[in-house]
Amino acid sequence: MMEIALYVGAAVIPAIFLMRYVYTQDSPEDREPPALLWRLALSGVYAALVAMVLEWIEDGLIIPAFHIQDKMTLLIVQMLFVGLTEEGCKLYFLKKRTWNNINFNYTYDGMMYSVFVSLGFAAFENILYVFNYGLSVAFSRAIFAIPAHFGFSVIMGIMYARAKFCDSRGDGVGKTANMLLGYILAVAMHAFYDTTASMNSNMGTGVFLIFVVIMYFVIYRLIKHEARTDRPIYY
To answer: Which listed site, 189, 200, 204, 208, has its alpha carbon 20 to 30 Å from 165?
Structure first.
């Protein structure tokens, strides 16, 4: 029992730490209900389960249909499908759970909601990795995989909030453009992260580390900016 608790703790504590960080950056006067945020984290688990099924189908049926022979091309295609699938599942559950929620009344909320869904996804994925490969992977995933999902979700969440802001003002084009852009950016970052992380070369490792450092810096600045410029979605 203690071993199971240790494994689960090692897998989920990094995600909880980042959830708490984003939560505390919100205005104390308009903090989101904890019950809603934990439901969103649970929605991230559902998104991970759906993504696992879709990725199994992609790996077994869709990608082989392309008959790709070049290993690098195959890797890029595989990682692109992973990004499309995982970010798509996150966005689906994010929108399903929050778009019409009465608590979604400030722009910072959209980013926070996205983070909680994504970190719920990442924590569940992390539990599977730790139980399959042991505690030896916990540290590397704590400093790379969990924050990576966090970074993708911040970008998607910012654009998701912009989409809601446009929708509240009857701007359908702005709503669609922001929603789509947030998804595309999250997919692109996810695919690039996975591709460079999977390259078995010094150049790939170097590009991966540079990308991660830049992403962490940019994401930190964006969170501070969104908290500072938070505004009501409705008049």
So the answer is: 189
Contact 7, 127 (CB under 8 A): yes
| Residues 8, 126: Cα–Cα separation, whole Å | 9
The answer to whether residue 3 scores a pLDDT higher than 70 is no
pTM for the whole structure = 0.95
Would you say the C-alpha torsion 124, 126, 128, 130 has a positive or negative sign?
A: negative
Give the tokens for residue 27: 């205005």
Cβ–Cβ < 8 Å for 211, 147: no
pLDDT in tens, 198-229: 998 899 899 999 999 999 999 999 999 999 99
Question: In the structure encoding, which two tokens stand for residue 69, read together?
Answer: 């022979």
Q: How far apart are CA 153 and CA 87, in angstroms?
A: 8
C-alpha span between 157 and 117 (Å, rounded): 10
State the Cα–Cα distance between residues 90 and 93, nearest whole angstrom: 5
DSSP 22-78: HHHHS-GGGPPPHHHHHHHHHHHHHHHHHHHHHHHHIIIIIGGGG----HHHHHHHH
For residue 145, the number of C-alpha atoms closer than 13 Å in the C-beta half-sphere is: 20
| DSSP β-bridge partners for residue 106 | 232
pLDDT tens-digit readout, 61-92: 889 988 888 988 989 999 999 999 999 999 99
Assess whether pLDDT exceeds 90 at residue 136.
no
The pair phi, psi for residue 106, each rounded to 5°, is -135, 155
